[in-house]
Amino acid sequence: MGQPLADDLGFLLSRASGLVVRATNTALAEHGLRVRQYSVLVLACESDDGSTQRELAAALGLDPSQVVLLVDELETGGLVERRPDPADRRTRLVVATAAGWRVREAAGAAADAAVETPLALLGEAERERLRDMLTRIWSAAAPG
Q1: Residues 6 or more apart whose Cβ sits within 8 Å of residue 131
Q2: CB 27 within 8 A of CB 114
């Protein structure tokens, strides 16, 4: 007989992720965002020169077609804009607008607060260990 579901690491990671995503989506909703849109906005804010949609897709582990839709939504909301890449006019760079920066700050505070509920039982040292372990797993799987 196999191991109980409660001992399955994949199941536990999936459930924990679901709890965090649901709490974060609830907090981000008041800013008109969901986790994936927020992630694209954060990345757009991290690069002064902008990022290509392909770079965003690679960083988020998403299919480029998904990123196109997310950027479309953010652009419709006035939070990002697509600009021609000076090095290659065929390529568009996704750049955060001033409104995008403001929403990113407010939404970031809301997202940070939302994560507190599902992670409340972990102490600071445990959170750092968890962050380190998840970062190592993610980094090993990240392209390039």
Answers
A1: none
A2: yes
- What's the predicted TM-score (pTM) here? 0.88
Q: Give the tens place of pLDDT for each residue, 86-103.
A: 888 889 999 999 999 999
Q: Where are the domains of the chain?
A: 18-141
Q: What is the pLDDT of residue 1?
A: 59
Compute the distance between CA of residue 35 and CA of residue 20 in angstroms, rounded to an integer: 10
Give per-residue pLDDT as tens, 108-121.
999 999 999 889 99
| 3-state secondary structure labels for all residues of the chain | CCCCHHHCHHHHHHHHHHHHHHHHHHHHHCCCCCHHHHHHHHHHHHCCCCEEHHHHHHHHCCCHHHHHHHHHHHHHCCCEEEEEECCEEEEEEEEECHHHHHHHHHHHHHHHHHHHHHHCCCCHHHHHHHHHHHHHHHHHHCCC
CATH number, span 18-141 = 1.10.10.10
Alpha carbon of 39 to those of 36, 45, 126: distances in Å?
Answer: 5, 10, 24
